[in-house]
Design a protein that fits this description.
The structure holds two protein chains of two kinds.
Chain A lengths: L3 H10 L5 H16 L7 E5 L9 E3 L3 H7 L1 H11 L3
Antiparallel strand pairs in A: 1-2
Chain B lengths: L1 E3 L4 H13 L8 E3 L5 H6 L5 E5 L6 E3 L5 E4 L10 E5 L7 H7 L4 E5 L4 E5 L14 H15 L4 H18 L3 H13 E5 L27
Parallel strand pairs in B: 1-2, 1-3, 3-6, 6-7
Antiparallel strand pairs in B: 4-5, 7-9
Helix pairs in contact in B: 1-4, 4-5, 5-6
Classes of the chains: A mainly alpha, B alpha/beta.
Chain lengths: 83, 217
């Protein structure tokens, strides 16, 4: 069953990537991550080449990346839509 | 041919699973780490398979340190070969170009290949059972199905079924999203009845030694 905070993150990512929407999505991501207590260093990675976003982002850094990078906001939206 | 760059976290993670579960069965040449460069790749044309990890775009596929080793304008001899590119987006242009150049079959992805990995396990990426394995083991199983001598259509079915099964079992929403995203974007092109010579089933009794190549963050 989907985590309620993850559903809120999905909802926040559905908006256009304005500065306000990115801040809101970053907060939603922080709340989602707070439901985890990883002992290791989980990192979201991809094998993209010349992408306008990093190909390795530690999960704890995702909220900051959402806030500063509209391309990453949209990349994450495409992924979480499949959740 | 096996192509396994090791220069950053995503290549280290994906290559690690191939090194652990595919390398003992793959025929030479095996271009690992810094050896995964354009010149040897373009020169070495023997073998019936090309199995490669690497960063990719619609028209390009990269080796170690993101050197472009193949693109739609520089396709090596792929006549009759089976290619599996563990990479992003190559199914958009490079995959079709490979089939047009005579490849028997291609398996790859039309959007980003995404997963969560444990950066603390970068020197022993095959041990990342919690985060990376739900995406990487289905890919590894797909590759091994091809090396078992089964058709690429059967191997692709293994990939999709394994991803679907892992998505069903996965409790973490983000990891499940990544699995489903990759399942949606996996592509088989060319002849689904293509197959290559079956290799003996060889597994390493112990994990390989840790990888100590420097990693780019």
């Amino acid at each position: 069953m989907a985590n309620a905070e993850f559903e809120k993150l999905k909802e926040a990512l559905r908006k256009a990537p304005t500065e306000e929407a990115r801040k809101e999505a970053a907060e939603a991501m922080r709340r989602y991550l707070a439901t985890h207590s990883p002992k290791s260093k989980p990192t979201l990675v991809s094998l993209g080449y010349k992408k306008p976003y990093p190909t390795a982002v530690p999960l704890e850094e995702i909220p900051n990346e959402i806030e500063r990078n509209p391309a990453f906001f949209e990349h994450l939206r495409e992924i979480v839509e499949e959740g | 041919m096996l192509l396994s760059p090791l220069h950053d976290l995503p290549t280290r993670s994906a290559s690690g699973f191939l090194i652990r579960y595919v390398l003992p069965r793959s025929a030479p040449p095996q271009l690992l780490g810094p050896a995964d460069r354009r010149q040897p790749f373009q020169m070495l044309t023997m073998g019936d398979t090309i199995i490669g990890v690497g960063h990719g775009s619609p028209s390009e596929f990269c080796g170690h340190n993101d050197q472009v080793i193949m693109d739609t304008l520089s396709i090596p001899d792929v006549e009759g070969k089976v290619l599996i590119l563990i990479s992003c987006e190559t199914a958009k242009e490079l995959g079709p170009a490979l089939i047009n150049a005579g490849a028997a079959s291609y398996i790859g992805f039309q959007e980003d290949l995404v997963w969560v990995m444990d950066a603390d396990l970068a020197s022993t990426p095959w041990a990342d059972k919690k985060f990376a394995a739900p995406v990487m083991m289905p890919i590894t199983n797909c590759v091994n199905t091809v090396l078992d001598g089964k058709t690429t259509g059967e191997a692709f079915a293994v990939l999709i079924e394994n991803l679907a099964g892992n998505a069903e079992l996965e409790e973490d929403d983000l990891i499940r999203s990544c699995i489903n995203f990759n399942k949606k974007n996996a592509v088989l092109l060319g002849d689904p009845t293509a197959r290559v010579r079956a290799r003996p089933k060889i597994t390493l009794p112990l994990p390989p030694p840790p990888i100590f190549f420097p990693i780019r963050r």
